[in-house]
Amino acid sequence: MPNTTTQTSPASCSYPEQTVLTMTIGITGQDTDDLTLALGAVLRLVEDGFTAGFDHNETGSYRFSID
User: Fold this and answer.
1) In which element (H, E) is residue 1 found?
2) 40-63 burial, b for 16+ CB within 10 Å, e for fewer?
3) What DSSP character marks residue 51?
4) pLDDT at position 10, please?
5) Which residues are CB-contacts of 66 (< 8 A; sequence separation ≥ 6)?
6) DSSP of 2-49
7) Which of 4, 49, 60, 64 is 20 to 30 Å from 29 by CA-CA measure?
8) Residue 54 CB partners (closer than 8 Å, separation 6+)
């Protein structure tokens, strides 16, 4: 008898008592350091309670929203 494993992603499960949030992030940069810095900025803003934001400088930009 073969071993089988079935996995279901959390997003496909139905949990009526839980709210599912979706975050959309757009980041541009001239190198990976720009991307890393922008992602860190987004994470700090989300941790501070922001649900949307954007910023830019000479080498990159970011935009995010939580729905």
Assistant:
1) none
2) eebeebbeeeeeeeeeeeeebebb
3) S
4) 54
5) 21, 22, 23, 24, 46, 51, 52
6) --------GGGS--TTS----EEEEEEESSHHHHHHHHHHHHHHHHTT
7) 49
8) 61, 62, 63, 64
Phi, psi dihedrals of residue 27, rounded to the nearest 5°: -130, 135
CA 39 to CA 33: how far, in whole Å?
Answer: 10
Q: What single letter denotes the amino acid at residue 28? A: T
**Pairing label, strands 60-66, 23-29:** antiparallel
pTM of the model: 0.72
Q: Which residues face 53 on adjacent strands? A: 64
